[in-house]
Amino acid sequence: MNTSASASESSRLIEIGIEALPADVLNTMDGITRLLYYRLPLKNRFRRIDVRDGLILKGPNGWAEVSPFWDYDAQESAQWLKAGLAAARGKPLKLKRDAVPINATVPVVDPQTAQKIVENSGGCTTVKVKVADPGSTIAQDCERIEAVRDVLGPTGKIRVDANAAWDVSEALAAIRELNAAAASGGGDGLEYVEQPCPTIDELAEVRRQVDVRIAADESVRRASDPLAVARAEAADLVIVKVQPLGGAARLIDICKNAGMPAVVSSALDSSVGIARGVECAAALDDLEFACGLGTARMFTDDVTADPMVPEGGELRPREIEIDENKVSYLPRDNQDAQAISRWVARLEEMVHCLR
Fold it and tell me: Which residues contact 203 (CB under 8 A, 6 or more apart)?
């Protein structure tokens, strides 16, 4: 996957002059008063990237994020822009709870690093472990899970995310081994397996043959019909993310109509995007499972001086303010200038898709 920078570089938060945007972009961005480019290095490689970058924009309802991954085309990325504009220009959601339970997230790292991540997770007692990464083995995934279990103890919950890496036979074999690893030390086995296979038909077949819950992620957020997985009875719960789904209103509507529990997760957002996810999770009628919104700790820095990191295993809905001390008003070097140019060009492509 292409990224705009390497992890060896420092973070960036750079103001982009609204007045310099093309006229058609300005029209779509009506009500947006500030636009910033951000770049945040990751502590550990995740989703095959070392650095995260995107846009932060401010409107009447505060700050919002637009940060589609670089392997998303303009049409799919436009949903992320739609979400950001709606968040920045809309109204606050009506909240049903004042705190949201959070899971820690463990990338594909060695067992010792996995344990440190859990120990420093801010009291999270549920952990999502990434598995099935290219170049890693099921044995290595099991070692990582067992290391997490050692820290969590028998009462903690472990879920895994395969990012659609397996076919049905591979999924059945892998789930059997991973579930046994999660049950080490007297644990209950896996809480659920997230997106073991790419297609809805494969998810349904796996679900019929295993006792572990199946969660749908890509089959929801990257689908033209996010409720198709529910009609096919291919999952036990849905993973929903604000930006990829086009905003809070659509996310909440999907949760109401899916007929199964939902887990609100981040799309590896900065704290600005995470705060919007926490707001959505706090607005849902029901919230049975811990949410995947504890990813701010995965970065070496953030766009705010007060990042959205869990305390006591929870996050509370709150507004995020940008750390103005981190904002640059000019690119520091040619690489910064090129990155901003790429994002402005991408912004224009997204705007065209929203027409």
Answer: 195, 196, 197, 214, 216, 219, 229, 232, 234, 235
pLDDT band at 6 (very low <50, low <70, confident <90, very high): very low
Q: How do strand 314-315 and strand 262-264 relate by DSSP bridges? A: unpaired
Is 43 assigned a catalytic role? Answer: no
Q: List where CATH 3.20.20.120 sits in the chain.
A: 100-315
pTM for the whole thing? 0.95
3-state SS, residue 264: strand
Among the listed residues 130, 157, 256, 326, the single catalytic one is 130
Distance separating alpha carbons of residues 38 and 36, to the nearest angstrom: 6
Architecture of domain 12-91+326-354: 2-Layer Sandwich (3.30)
Residue given tokens 């959601």 in the structure block: 93
Tokens of 104: 């820690």
**Residue 8 scores a pLDDT above 60:** no
Which part of the chain is CATH 3.30.390.10?
12-91+326-354
**CA dist., res. 127 & res. 131, Å (int):** 13
pLDDT digits (tens, 9 = 90+) for 230-282: 999 999 999 999 999 999 999 999 999 999 999 999 999 999 999 999 999 99
Selected catalytic residue, list 58, 82, 157, 241: 241
Specify the CATH architecture of the domain 100-315: Alpha-Beta Barrel (3.20)
Told to judge if 130 belongs to the known catalytic residues of this protein, a careful annotator would answer yes
pLDDT digits (tens, 9 = 90+) for 97-154: 999 999 999 999 999 999 999 999 999 999 999 999 998 999 999 999 999 999 999 9
Determine the pLDDT at residue 9.
Answer: 65
